[in-house]
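User: what does the whole thing look like in 3D?
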Amino acid sequence: MRPFDYARADTTSDAATRAAAGATFLAGGTNLLDLMKLEVMAPEALVDVTRLDLHEVEATDESGLRIGALVTNSDLANHATVRAHYPVLSRALLSGATVQLRNKATTGGNLLQRTRCPYFYDTAAACNKRDPGTGCAAMEGRNRILAVLGASDHCIATHPSDMAVAMRALGARVVTEGPDGGRELDLGDLYRLPGDTPNIETVLSDGELITAVILPPPPAGAQSYVKVRDRASYAFALVSVAGVVAVEDGRITSANLAFGGLAPMPWRNEAVETALIGKAPSTETFDAAADILLADAKGHGDNDFKIPLARRTLRRALRELCERAA
Amino acid sequence: MDDTPRNADFDVALTMDAAQPPVLDRTVQGLLGTAMDRPDGPLKVTGTARYAAEALPENLVTGFLVRATITKGRVIGMKAEAVEAMPGVIRVMTGHPLLRNPAQGQAHQAPEQILPKVDYFGQPVALVVAETFEQARHAAQALVVTYEEEVAEVDPNAASQVDKPKASQLDQGDLEGAMRSSPVAIDTTYTTAPHSSAPMEPHASIAEWVDGRLQLRGSYQMLKHNVAELADSLGVDEARVRIHAPYVGGGFGSKLGIAPEAVAAAHAARELGRPVRVVMARDQVFEMTMRRTETTQRMRLACDADGLMTALAHEDRVSNLPGEAFSEPTAQGTHFLYGGANRRFTHEVARIHRPCAGSVRAPGEAVGMIALECAMDELAEAADIDPVELRIRNIPDTTPEGGQPYSERALERCLREGAERFGWSQRRGMAERLEGDWWVGMGVAAAVRTNMMEESIARVTLRPDGTALCETDMTDIGTGSYAILTQIVGEMLGLPREKVEVQIGDSDLPKSSGSGGSFGAQSCGSAVFLACQGVRKHLAERMEVAPDDLTLRDGRATGGNRQVALTDLVEAPMSAEGHVKPGETEDNFSIAGYGAHFAEVGVHRDTGEVRVHRMLGVFSIGRVLNMKTATSQCHGGMIWGIGSALTEEIMHDPRDGRIVNHNLAEYHIPVSLDVPQLDAMLLEDTRDDQANPIQAKGIGELGISGAAAAVGNAIRNACGVRVRDFPATPDKIFPHLPDVT
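Assistant: Here's the predicted 3D structure for the full assembly of 1067 residues, as structure tokens:
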């Protein structure tokens, strides 16, 4: 770990100012501190935002929920409103990491955690995300956990979050504050696909701090989070599906689906959802949706299996959701 | 300890040339075999047991190892000056005596010291010493090393150098003929992934030279060998090395031999004249210590219409670095578990440049039994015979290759009692039981683990205050050595547990087998038993009775119509050494631990995820020394079995052999959710008189042997998918799942 300056921010604008001057935000530190120990990240300064007043979960005027960026994953998963009305989010959170990590990890930090691509963490491996221009060791390496959708020739990293997948299915919006004021954007618009700059992962500008996530009012229908992984707990998703599906008179009337483990960001494809609307639940219906989801999917050897596994996981999630929603 | 010459009159030596009487069945203290809590338990759960890295000698500095970032070649440059100019940095060291890899178990000499040569990606190439850990690590990361790189082979299947050790090849009868002429024959190949020991405590040493003698606080399993290996590595006399290892936070084979951090710390401490601490980072534990090799195992089995085996072939390929004598004895258990007159064994060692392969819990059986016991399941299916029954029918009367008799062997009983307890009769046909979205099925596998007893010495002293001291250089690697030695002494000398003090983990104490190969409890325990026999003899003389007429209980000696408190009988410390050696019984008998595993699993109909619902292991190991610690060993072994069946795999980069998943997030040892309630049952009434004078055999490794196969066989029964490439991750199952209509 390289020696660094540490400052604790008292106000959001103080944090933003320090970050705009080069400091890196520190919240739960569950990912950043590991990266610093390995010198994958070597910030010269940290600005600790944990004392900012961003720890509340509140109802919004629109009957949705405003989640402060510093609400821990544990608190959010166990929040009564989340458990009752956004169970997909609660389940996604509880499927991630371990109790100890969830007690520290925050909502904002979870959204901004880095990939778990093993080559990103090995400073003796080529990685365009860590060291732009060095290449991608994962492309022909051990890429079992890496992306089959949305990746590029420069990077096949996956976004590791479960929480963000559920939030994406729920249509969450992200609130930020920065040196130039604040904004609110769709969670899907927060992330950038790797293209030829995989080192740039979000649209956030220097100093821009996520202060909250806003959930719209609870959606109609059944909710579930299905996560397939290599062991029953404390493993990142091979494939995960966050789903909210409503069924009326034997037909699917609404479907919101997001996918984890497949792409550099929590993945959502509205054409998949459109293909389900108005259809009777059946394996054929589900497979037609999977065809759309996976039309452009590309494996890289070890992770080829994710493509058929995604189809099967979607089938499982939709079957369960439709049974419960009917 | 003191330096006054000992009276050796009561020392007892025994070479295991003949069956031994069950003395411990006649003692009356009632301590041995009970589920006594470990004496060290409270220290461990309160964090006050002091592990290797936790001492703070004055002037302590920290070293951090630097790894090679090429697979094969030479170090040709190192910008040491730049790093030595960094804050707090004291010295960069490279070259001799740094180790290429740890010593193999019981090597008793220095491992390869080849710098500036590099043989694998991750090999230690330097040690950076600084005032603080953070400074040392940062400097190590900053050190620029230049290499001359050579082409390296890292794929065991494509290796150009493949050794075929003569002693590991066997051709008996006519295998091909038997395969052709038998009504049922299978020819099947299994592969298993490389494994890591992944002990919770990383490899750690603090080295300090005091008056020209090295004092090393280390995390090691076999101190008498480790002293020799460390001394040889440093080029000093063994008398100038002392190792302290009172607590070891898990070893599983990875701490059998002296490892790079110890030699680096000792060398740096000698050069700098200050105590030096070197702790491996988690990724270094994966890269710089021992892995279990990957294996490819071709199995050919044939039987007649009644299921009696006619042919058995076990042909395997493993790998290791050039120059390493160790090769995974994959077929070890296959040689004597089942009959079959026509037999073939071939064993190949591919010489490749992946990190060093060595002993990992139950070397041989842990992975060899996966192939054998899954192949037995395939044979049972082909012959249409119940898998439990097929196994029982093929238990041989004498060993099928040497014709030796077996010592205590309760395999049939374990299989039958296990089947009854598990509800085996409820097992349905393949893919016949769909519960919700889960296919459910049961599997069975036999367990067998070769038993070893090793030379061991211990000293027991009965003191005038009525307490006893037991001294040996034995280690406790989390297994319960403190507990079982306390129990043996208490049982033999008639003392309650609180009157017995056990001192271990110091290489200056009498030399034991150390911990490894499941031989620690029986070998060291036998030495302690013999020492107690010596003390008993001394007491009998005092009581003026024959030793057999002496009864010791609760601190009182009874014999010749009188009862005397030990505090009145013992005027000066009574000390005796026990010394046990293996002898003819291990040549004249096939001695092993046996058992049976049963597993019930669910396989998800869509995704192929496997969940173990329940698991039973029934084991026979002769005398059980402590029901709680022995059962815990079984649980640990069964959990390893779940790991090797479903989750554990070291991933090597296909280009340079480096370990890609070198952390506990991506190397998937089973977590609580992967492990159901485990039922481990030990037969309590068995004794093995040929094994040793305490009639107890090893248990630590038996629990893993066969466990993964039971899971694999249960997967087959549940959903019809036969996994032959372990671990059975979802991608190996879902493409073959049956459709649900």
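In plain terms: The radius of gyration of chain A is 19 Å. Chain A has 13 helices and eleven strands.
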